[in-house]
Amino acid sequence: MLNRGELESLFGALTEETPAPGLRIFQPQRGYRYGVEVYALAGFALGIGAPLEVPRPKTAIELGSGSGVVSFLLAREGVAVRAWDRDPGWIELARLSLARSPAATGAVRLSVRDVRDVGRAGGADLVVCNPPWFDPAEGPVAPDPRKAEARSMLHGTVQDFVNTALTLASRVCVVTRAERLAKLSLPGAHVARRAWLPSGGIGLVELRPGEGSTREESLDLEAIYAALRAPWRGVRAR
């Protein structure tokens, strides 16, 4: 495991955040930093505030885990999580965070894996992903390389993430921009639940195999913050 000094040589100055009690997340002071969507995704996947009961997962996989915050939030709620990212730097940064996060110790396994080539990974009850949202052909790409990879679809599209996720679990929860959701192809699956962040331009969907109807839900961020004991309010999405 790399120490903090070695990680700062990769990421620049780091800050330490406490997304929930017992969790410590290191992230770059400048560059990609998590926002409200990570709480929304974790809460939506767990069914916090949902009008009807949502199955509580025992195991989960996070695709494109970055700093690991979604995986850590799920682990704190009793879920055993495999967190995957193609960038070894993010995995090393998450290892440092995990060493300082007693509420997630023993419940998160970190691995370097590309979403387009996960190999024989085995399945889980749930897959969560917060994939890059922006098409690099449609606008500027962030100058910071890791922020660019987190925001722009340079190493896999939203469709790539969904295609892989549907091979790994019977429940897949995704947060992304509305226009990406509208373009998704879902052969053999359907949108079982859908909710929107308050801005309306960012949506969350739960995908399940087979045909079925879509349940529209209101996302209760206050209930999610309270249930996760999150200290933040009104954090901006990326």
Features:
single chain, 238 residues, alpha/beta, Rossmann fold, globular
Structural class, from secondary structure content? alpha/beta
Which geometry do the CA atoms define?
globular
Largest sheet: 8 strands, mixed
Task: Report strand order across the widest sheet.
Answer: 5-4-3-6-7-9-8-10
Element pattern in H and E:
HEEHEHEHEEHHEHEEEH
Q: What fraction strand?
A: 15-25%
CATH superfamily: Vaccinia Virus protein VP39
- Give me the count of strands: 10
Helical content stands at: 25-40%
- The CATH topology turns out to be Rossmann fold
Given this structure, which CATH class is correct? Alpha Beta
Can you name the CATH architecture? 3-Layer(aba) Sandwich
**What Rg is obtained from the alpha carbons, in whole angstroms?**
16 Å
How many domains, as an integer? 1
Stretches with pLDDT under 50, minimum 5 residues: none
Specify the number of helices. 8
Mean pLDDT: 90
Separation, N- and C-terminal Cα atoms: 28 Å
What's the layout of helices and strands?
Elements: H1 4-11, E1 14-17, E2 25-28, H2 36-46, E3 59-63, H3 69-76, E4 80-85, H4 88-99, E5 108-112, E6 126-129, H5 145-151, H6 158-166, E7 172-177, H7 178-183, E8 189-196, E9 202-209, E10 215-216, H8 221-228
Parallel strand pairs: 3-4, 3-6, 4-5, 6-7, 8-10
Antiparallel strand pairs: 1-2, 7-9, 8-9
Helix pairs in contact: 1-4, 2-3, 2-8
